[in-house]
Amino acid sequence: MAPVPLVESDAATPPAGRRRVIADSLGVGLATGAYGVSFGAVATASGLGVAQACVLSLLMFTGASQFALVGVLAGGGSVPAATGTALLLGVRNSLYGLRLASLLGWRGWRRLGAAHLVIDESTAMATAQPDRARARLAFVVTGGSVFVLWNLSTLLGAVAGSALGDPRTLGLDAAVGAAFLALLWPRLTTGGLRALALVAAVLALALVPLTPAGVPVLAAGGLALLVGLHPRWDPAPPQPGTPR
Amino acid sequence: MTPAWTAVLLAGVGCLALKVAGLAMPARVLERPAVARMTMLLPVALLAALVAVQTLADGTRLALDARVAGLGAAVLLLRLRAPFLLVVATAAGVAALLRALA
């Protein structure tokens, strides 16, 4: 395999180790990038244009926020509600960036370029590596392959979605809920987080008849901020032996 | 500019700025425990609310329709550790099938 640009070679990492990192990262990239098809299809079926779906994938490039923006707009939410929900979901990328800054150790334009590739998958793959050279490799290969595939598959899905007709006939409105659930599922690692998810869902539903579209979801975000003020909610992963 | 374009560009630039800010900010800002907790809890609460609203709301009223069956199928597949695309496609397929039969 050709050397990956941006990544400095490191004599301490054996070639077999590098190949393993590249293979694993490409695997994650393929699996994640492919579901841009569902984003593209849902976006155009919900009323966005092909160009708008593609600009979202190119510029925003963070799946949960993209689905949220489309979902809130399609549900009749205002521009501030849709934008606010997407931004609140994007806040976690700031925390990822903070962790990655010291791990990757890039400065200047490289750091700026790396920022665009900060997503769940590239962060997870980079932070799982034992040293900086492999962390950089995993970050660039994962982030880069997701970026290329996510954008190609968004275009594909968007063109298909705009040709499909009524989204309800095809069940695409049900697909959006399923997409959010699939994004949520791996985060429900503790009883406390599952309880928060349940309360957030109930709160949002209770507000649906009372507030303009988009506000119920933002209120759930507000709930998370309030709960986060309480020190009992330690973000540390559960210790071994902790019941899940 | 149409409202959709305004939302796309505002949120797009904003989300990119959040990524840049994380890489550029001094470590102590986001390492405050309350900020770290909120950053972990936010996606859980927002995604859970989006699942609920997307499945049970129709504008500003609640509605029980084929979407619920689609979500049920998604839960089943997620429990079986099915990949993302299969989960999403099956949910759509189940809802579409129910509507075709109705």
Summary tags:
heterodimer, A: 244 residues, mainly alpha, 2 domains, 11 helices, 0% strand, globular, disordered N terminus, disordered C terminus, B: 102 residues, two-stranded antiparallel ribbon, 5 helices
Task: Write up what this structure looks like.
The complex is a heterodimer of chains A (244) and B (102). Chain A has helices at 15-34, 36-45, 50-60, 63-74, 79-104, 108-116, 120-127, 132-163, 172-184, 191-207, 215-228. Chain A is globular, with a radius of gyration of 19 Å. Chain A starts with 14 loop residues before the first helix and ends in a 16-residue tail after the last helix. The longest helix of chain A is centred in the middle third of the chain and has 32 residues, at 132-163. By secondary structure, chain A is an all-alpha fold. In chain B, helix 4 (66-79) packs antiparallel against helix 5 (84-101). Chain B starts with a helix and ends with a helix.
Q: Oligomerization state of this entry? A: heterodimer
Distance between the termini of chain A: 41 Å
Low-pLDDT segments, ≥5 res of chain B: none
Chain-averaged pLDDT of chain B: 92
Indicate the percent of residues in helices of chain A: over 70%
Q: Order of strands in the sheet with the most strands of chain B?
A: 1-2
| Mean model confidence by pLDDT of chain A | 87
Strand content of chain B: under 5%
Number of strands of chain B: 2
Summarize the structure.
The complex is a heterodimer of chains A (244) and B (102). Chain A is an all-alpha fold.
Outline the secondary-structure elements.
The complex is a heterodimer of chains A (244) and B (102).
Chain A: H1 15-34, H2 36-45, H3 50-60, H4 63-74, H5 79-104, H6 108-116, H7 120-127, H8 132-163, H9 172-184, H10 191-207, H11 215-228
Chain B: H1 3-24, H2 27-31, H3 33-56, E1 57-58, E2 61-62, H4 66-79, H5 84-101
Antiparallel strand pairs in B: 1-2
Helix pairs in contact in B: 4-5
